[in-house]
Amino acid sequence: MFSVFRSSGCHSPKICTLNIPRRNLSTRVGPLDELSSRGFVSQVTKPEQLRDFLQDQSRVVYSGIDPTADSLHVGHILPMMCLVHFQIHGHKVIPLIGGATALIGDPSGRSAERPHMEEAMAQNNMLKLSAAVQKFFERAGDYAGKRVSSLDESYIPPLVMNNIDWFKNLGVLEFLRVAGANARVNSMIARESVQSRLNSQQGISFAEFSYQLLQAYDFLALHERTGCTIQIGGSDQWGNIIAGLELIGRTNELSNRAAESRERAFGITTPLLTTATGAKFGKSAGNAIWLNEKLTSVYDFYQFFMKTSDEDVGRYLKLFTLLPLEKIEQTLEDHRRNPEERIAQKLLAEEVTELVHTVEGVKRAKSITRVLFGTDVSAVNAAEVLVALSGDRRLLSIPAEEMYGTTVLRLTVTHGVTKNTSAAKSLVAMRGLYLNGQTIDADRKIQPEDLIDGRLVIVRAGKDKHVVFTLQS
User: Fold this and answer.
1) Which SUPFAM superfamilies does the record associate with it (predicted)?
2) Alpha-carbon separation of residue 407 from 249, 378, 443 (angstroms)
């Protein structure tokens, strides 16, 4: 379907040339093989040519991130880790914030049109998401530095960009002359994302229909400004990526440069990530697991990966960590021998928490885990608990009259640890309500001597619902 695509050269007046060193990478396992062996790759355009293309010098790779929220969630880790692997192999990566395209909305994978986002909200999301992406890659660099021996000589920091930079001053006539004139409506209509909507009752708006041209223009803009030749996206982005390749190809055909001097362009898609039960990865009771600690605590983030099923844990270790595959296979073998110890889940939770929240985050998460699930409070230090739970929704300060004058059962209902009094009584009857790790009766009240270091108590309802009460000063 595709000829060899070659760059038309940097003829734009808005060039931001990247000084990318030429390296001989032929002695190393290439990023495409590494990604394939870890399960990142769903589809690739011309894989053999791409494999060779990545060997002779550093290339520029990009992946888009829509600012539909002001924080990253765990679903973003997959494409960003894909970029990290390219960084490790000495290539330049561009996480592209879709500040402009978010105002339109991508129809891919959706049965109905997205609600239009207000510009003020999009602007807020862009700023916060750009900072979040920078933070992720800084921490990913630290994480990779401890696990990849050759990182120092090959690692190039990411260039976070925003497509609002070229769309904000782009006139409709200029856009149509470039993207519109080189696009074919029959190809656009044939895209799966368009076809599924054409056959639906709601149909598809012209704005959504033209989204693929906007994303195609992104690839062309990055191709001309930075020399970007590879786009990575989810499997539902295949049609949009192909649109970009076609636009680059047709633009290159109009170039006056010699054919042999033109660069090629490629696309890679990652699989749609679901759990073994078919649920969308990153959703917990309908709520996203955020990378922002203010939205999802370090403890909850850690526990999300601790709860990974045995069927999924091996796959997630390959995708979300930089552990050698041999280490992962050995861990899975150890796990199969003693599944009750959840060796693989512990390793996964520790690795991904370090990637996102640093080593200090791992320490805090494990500390909170020991405190909330432990049965022996003699070794618990109240000061450490307060530091570890700082800002956590489970840490509640209540007045002395409530602390000592209300049953623990009533406290769990008042503060949402149990749904209602009936549910709380059922827990007590099943010996499932705990104060400082010990089961209690329905009429039990907190006594001053129950407070750990005179400062707090730990209440658990059922398997994993907790609250830590402190005295209000």
Assistant:
1) Alpha-L RNA-binding motif (SSF55174), Nucleotidylyl transferase (SSF52374)
2) 72, 23, 6
- Secondary structure of the chain in HEC code, one letter for each residue: CCCCCCCCCCCCCCCCCCCCCCCCCCCCCCHHHHHHHHCCCCEECCHHHHHHHCCCCCCEEEEEECCCCCCCEHHHHHHHHHHHHHHHCCCEEEEEECCCHHHCCCCCCCCCCCCCCCHHHHHHHHHHHHHHHHHHHHHHHHHHHCCCCCHHHHCCCCCCEECHHHHCCCCHHHHHHHHHCCCCHHHHHHCHHHHHHHCCCCCCCHHHHCHHHHHHHHHHHHHHHHCCCEEEEEHHHHHHHHHHHHHHHHHHHCCCCCHHHCCCCEEEEECCCECCCCCECCEECCEECECCCCCCCHHHHHHHHHCCCHHHHHHHHHHHCCCCHHHHHHHHHHHHHCHHHCHHHHHHHHHHHHHHHHHHHHHHHHHHHHHHHCCCHHHCCHHHHHHHCCCCCCEEEECHHHHHHCEHHHHHHHCCCCCCHHHHHHHHHCCCEEECCEECCCCCECCHHHCECCCEEEEEECCCEEEEEEECC
Main-chain phi, psi angles of 438, to 5 degrees: -115, 140
Q: Are 199 and 189 in contact (CB under 8 A)?
A: no
pLDDT of residue 283: 58
Supply the pTM of this predicted model.
0.85
Closest by alpha carbon to 272, among 466, 37, 78? 78
Identify whether the C-beta of residue 381 lies closer than 8 Å to the C-beta of residue 374.
no
Q: How many whole angstroms separate alpha carbon 41 and alpha carbon 173?
A: 37
- Within 8 A by CB and 6+ apart from 354, the residues are 143, 361, 362
Planar angle of CA 278, 280, 284, nearest 5 degrees: 110
Find out whether 187 and 246 touch, Cβ atoms under 8 Å: yes
Dump pLDDT digits (tens) for 300-353.
Answer: 999 999 999 999 999 999 999 999 999 999 999 999 999 999 999 999 999 999
Give residue-wise pLDDT tens across range 27-52. Answer: 457 899 999 999 999 999 999 999 99
How far out from the chain centre does Cα 43 lie? 20
**Distances from the Cα of 402 to the Cαs of 422, 459, 469, in angstroms?**
21, 15, 10
Question: Is the confidence at residue 454, as pLDDT, over 80?
Answer: yes
Q: Give the number of other Cβ atoms within 10 Å of residue 75's Cβ.
A: 16
